[in-house]
């Protein structure tokens, strides 16, 4: 023992210091510890990078990857906010899930629903198709009127299932979409992702919900495509889309029919005609014309062949909101339950337009008068990028069945838009996106 211990104390110690084996082993141990330590730090940094909160998470640069963003949702506090926002506060009120609530039409519809005592819960992925700060400002507006917007994507079926578990929505107002006619040539997959895959994901959740909600959703005047019979009636052909955007909206109408037929979902599509107004979309011509005229930048005005005019049936947001609410109010219940159809359900399509097309050149003249600035104009040939020459709604069906009656002409509507624009961007202090 003594001998052994002395061996350890003397020889062993000596051996440990001098033996290359032990020396290397010790270095190896310390390298391993260092490697483990730095690996841990590296993994922690990766974890922080991918899982930090959505508000501080910069959006991916590639627009087609926008949907890969992760969102934080869930937990008791979150569920409490969801329930409170969706709580019905008036007799005969309904409880509505509004997708695309931070969007232009979504914000206006959510506010109107909330104001009349309905339960309203918003859902939006806050993508960066246009300036997300405008979406955040709309969110703040809705927050003040008691509407909570859940941050998430309509393609997230787990989130949708959860929302229907927490709230028995009576209605879904589906306004989330990839909008814009010309952008479809730049980023086609975003249209398929939101307007087709997203719609299917939402309808899947609705069909499995108990009770099944009635769904009202945004289609588009663009489905009329190359149809030359005017004004456009719901009975006219819609099988000649001129843009991928239009094609995805038309596909949406067919998909909606399938879910109505198989699962008994009550479905109403609203074909919106070039909606404009305060809190509007910066990618639309009336909005960026205003910005560019004020900045002294040249605007491009499209003209058809042989100097023909290009016209739109511009429709003011308040008229659209009335149409949306009327569609909700007249929607019958879905007939299925537990994913099974019990009987035929309502299936409707309506034009929501203004019935008076205005040439784009007149839109510019109105803006010039309102802004008191002469626009620098460049007249160019209508590019072959999805635009059509004319839209003009026949609204007699919506008039008859929804009591829809637009009452704002372009001059009065643009006056309200310009007033909002100048106030919001405070004379150019905030940069218009
Ligand atoms: O009803 C719809 O379903 C669609 O309406 C809207 O599409 P559009 O009617 O094309 O609106 P918008 O881009 O504002 O162009 C307005 C006019 O300005 C012309 N235009 C456009 C750009 C330009 O630089 N110059 C120009 O003359 C252009 O040729 C057009 O005549 C929505 O964006 C779309 O998401 C969808 O909802």
UniProtKB/TrEMBL annotation:
GO MF annotation terms: UDP-glucuronate 4-epimerase activity
Topology term for the membrane: Multi-pass membrane protein
Main subcellular location of this protein, as a coarse class: Golgi
Enzyme Commission no: 5.1.3.6
Keywords, in A-Z order: Carbohydrate metabolism, Golgi apparatus, Isomerase, Membrane, NAD, Transmembrane, Transmembrane helix
Gene3D superfamilies, per database record: NAD(P)-binding Rossmann-like Domain
One Pfam family named in its UniProt record: Epimerase
Entry superkingdom: Eukaryota
Domain NAD-dependent epimerase/dehydratase: 96-333
Subcellular location: Golgi apparatus, Golgi stack membrane
Gene Ontology cellular component annotations, sorted alphabetically: Golgi cisterna membrane
Catalyzed reactions: UDP-alpha-D-glucuronate = UDP-alpha-D-galacturonate
Membrane-traversing stretches: 32-51
InterPro entries in alphabetical order: Epimerase_deHydtase, NAD(P)-bd_dom_sf
PANTHER family: EPIMERASE-RELATED (PTHR43574)
UniProt subunit comment: Homodimer.
Family that this chain belongs to: Belongs to the NAD(P)-dependent epimerase/dehydratase family.
Name of this protein: UDP-glucuronate 4-epimerase
Annotated organism of origin: Hibiscus trionum
């Amino acid at each position: 023992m003594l001998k052994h211990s002395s061996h350890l104390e003397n020889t062993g110690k000596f051996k440990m210091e001098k033996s290359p084996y032990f020396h290397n082993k010790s270095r190896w141990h310390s390298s391993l510890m260092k490697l483990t330590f730095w690996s841990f730090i590296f993994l922690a940094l990766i974890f922080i990078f991918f899982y930090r909160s959505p508000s501080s998470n910069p959006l991916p640069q590639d627009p087609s990857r926008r949907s890969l963003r992760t969102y934080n949702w869930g937990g008791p506090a979150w569920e409490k906010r969801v329930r409170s926002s969706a709580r019905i506060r008036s007799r005969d009120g309904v409880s509505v899930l509004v997708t695309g609530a931070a969007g232009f039409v979504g914000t206006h519809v959510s506010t109107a629903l909330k104001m009349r005592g309905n339960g309203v819960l918003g859902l939006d992925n806050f993508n960066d198709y246009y300036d997300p700060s405008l979406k955040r400002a709309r969110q703040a507006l809705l927050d003040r009127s008691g509407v909570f917007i859940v941050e998430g994507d309509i393609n997230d079926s787990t989130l949708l299932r959860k929302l229907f578990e927490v709230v028995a929505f009576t209605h879904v107002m589906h306004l989330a979409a990839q909008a814009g006619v010309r952008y479809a040539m730049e980023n086609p997959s975003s249209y398929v992702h939101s307007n087709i895959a997203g719609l299917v994901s939402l309808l899947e959740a609705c069909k499995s919900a108990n009770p099944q909600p009635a769904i009202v959703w945004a289609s588009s005047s663009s489905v009329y495509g190359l149809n030359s019979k005017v004004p456009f009636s719901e009975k006219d052909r819609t099988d000649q889309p001129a843009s991928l955007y239009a094609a995805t909206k038309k596909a949406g109408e067919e998909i909606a029919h399938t879910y109505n037929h198989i699962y008994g979902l009550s479905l109403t599509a609203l074909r919106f005609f070039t909606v404009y107004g305060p809190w509007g979309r910066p990618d639309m011509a009336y909005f960026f014309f205003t910005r560019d005229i004020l900045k002294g930048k040249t605007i491009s005005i499209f003209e058809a062949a042989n100097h023909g005019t290009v016209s739109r049936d511009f429709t003011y947001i308040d008229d659209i909101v009335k149409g949306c609410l009327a569609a909700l109010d007249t929607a019958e219940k879905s007939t299925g339950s537990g994913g099974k159809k019990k009987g035929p359900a309502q299936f409707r399509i309506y034009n929501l337009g203004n019935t008076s097309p205005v040439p784009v050149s007149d839109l510019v003249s109105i803006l010039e008068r309102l802004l008191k600035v002469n626009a620098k104009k460049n007249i160019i040939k209508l590019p072959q990028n999805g635009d059509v020459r004319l839209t003009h709604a026949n609204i007699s069906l919506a008039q008859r069945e929804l009591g829809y009656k637009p009452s704002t002409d372009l001059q009065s509507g643009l006056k309200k838009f310009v007033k909002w624009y100048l106030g919001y961007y405070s004379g150019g202090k905030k940069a218009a996106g």
